[in-house]
Write a structure and sequence with these properties.
binds magnesium ion, binds adenosine-5'-diphosphate, Rossmann fold, 41% helix
């Protein structure tokens, strides 16, 4: 096995990088791939909570880099998926504890262990971001359909080009079809026109994403969720499958009501 290393970044904070990392890792693992996800947000550990693994954290990536533990000791196995692992970020250190060379070395060591290594990048374009993209074979840029998020994404796309990381693929997250229909939100086409990069998926705004995150159970494993389906589709595209984009035209009130009922436990 030689893992593909994929970094998920955005420029702006709060657009859904950690959500996308947890869900794409889960979806790839559900499909049978061996996946290691890395929380690259040193000092602001988050991915462990979203994946429901916070109680199992003993060692973190800085412990690996500074030789306090072996790589395998810092790999936390998912509660449900045997082929999914998390390497958590340090909570009491900052991004200066890690260098780009450290990240490349850790990922090189993981390449033999996995099919995919997915790195959750911190916000910004400073050192933490640079560390996160250093080992990437491929970069996914997440944005929301909002002007400020798109502007930050555009800046990141420019840096990735300058760093010769190749053209990233775009995830548009939290699209609300009803707002787009009323011209109250940028459409996917608007965002693509502004950024000029390839689209790999659109994830609708879905409160079930927040509920899943709070429960430590990424929505990708819920077969009925549309956002979960969107993440599963992106995972398939990452594996080279040609999956049609979902129809995100506004749903009728009746359909929304049925979906809400279906989600009730
Ligand atoms: N598709 C979505 N629908 C609804 N809420 C979402 C969606 N994606 C992300 N969120 C919520 O947005 C917030 C920020 O997401 P997060 O992944 O932490 O962003 P980042 O890692 O980019 O800072 C979280 O509360 C998350 O649950
Ligand atoms: Mg995050």
């Amino acid at each position: 096995m030689t893992a593909q290393v994929i970094t998920i970044t955005s420029g702006k904070g709060g657009v859904g990088k950690t959500t996308a990392t947890a869900n794409l890792s889960t979806a790839l693992a559900l499909d049978g791939a061996r996946v290691v996800c890395i929380d690259g947000d040193i000092g602001l550990r988050n991915l462990d909570v979203i994946m429901g693994l916070e109680n199992r954290v003993v060692y973190d990536i800085v412990d690996v880099i500074e030789g306090r533990c072996k790589l395998k000791q810092a790999m936390i196995r998912d509660k449900h998926l045997q082929n999914l692992y998390l390497i958590p970020a340090a909570q009491t250190r900052d991004k200066n504890a890690v260098s780009a060379a450290d990240m490349i070395r850790v990922c090189d060591d993981l390449r033999a262990e996995a099919d995919f290594v997915i790195i959750d990048s911190p916000a910004g374009i400073e050192r933490g971001f640079r560390n996160a993209i250093a080992p990437a074979d491929r970069v996914l840029v997440v944005t929301n359909p909002e002007v400020s998020a798109v502007r930050d994404a555009d800046r990141v796309v420019g840096i990735l080009e300058a760093e010769e990381k190749g053209a990233p693929a775009l995830i548009i997250n939290r699209l609300n079809p009803a707002l787009v229909k009323n011209s109250d939100m940028l459409s996917a086409e608007d965002v693509l026109d502004l950024l000029g990069i390839r689209l790999i998926g659109i994830v609708p705004e879905d409160e079930a994403v927040i509920i899943g995150s709070n429960r430590g159970a990424p929505i990708a494993s819920e077969s009925k969720s549309r956002a979960g389906q969107a993440f599963r589709n992106i995972a398939k595209r990452l594996r080279g499958e040609d999956v049609p984009f979902m129809d995100l035209t506004p749903q009728s009130g009746l359909w929304n009501a049925i979906q809400r009922l279906a989600r009730r436990k």
